Fold:
Amino acid sequence: MPTRGVIYVHSSPPAVCPHVEWAIGRVLDCEVELDWSIQAASPATWRTECAWSGPAGTASKLATALQRWQMLRFEVTEDPSAGVDGERIMFVPGRGLFRAATSANGDLMIAEDRIRALLATSRDADGLRHGLSRLLGSEWDAELEAYRHYGDDSGQNWLSQVS
Structure:
């Protein structure tokens, strides 16, 4: 069952941009040419975003391909599809990859066993608060927030995986 999602490359050195396009193209099995613009939060880097469609699990493959360049900041989303939760994956240099399941409206979902483990190991309210923050990827969100805002001139490309 096909699904869709969005790739947000929040910051990339200009020299790496063609490699990002090739990596995305390899995963989607199509030629990719993205519209890049200067990242206002880090003017020495560029940003882009594109919507994609393909089989369930494509977001994970895209994130794996992109994390090879440890200087990138990116997010990849995948909408839920029949029998498969959606997914949100974030990558920040020095922090690595964060991955979480998402609901139909895009909210992060935390599995029951992870909440139970947190409750069992938290010694106090501060520990519980810190653990929930970690499960929600708050540190990744905080680091990416400044990079998520961009000018109105940004377009969005649609990419489809070849079957």
Summary: The chain has a mean pLDDT of 91. The first strand starts at residue 2 and ends at 12.
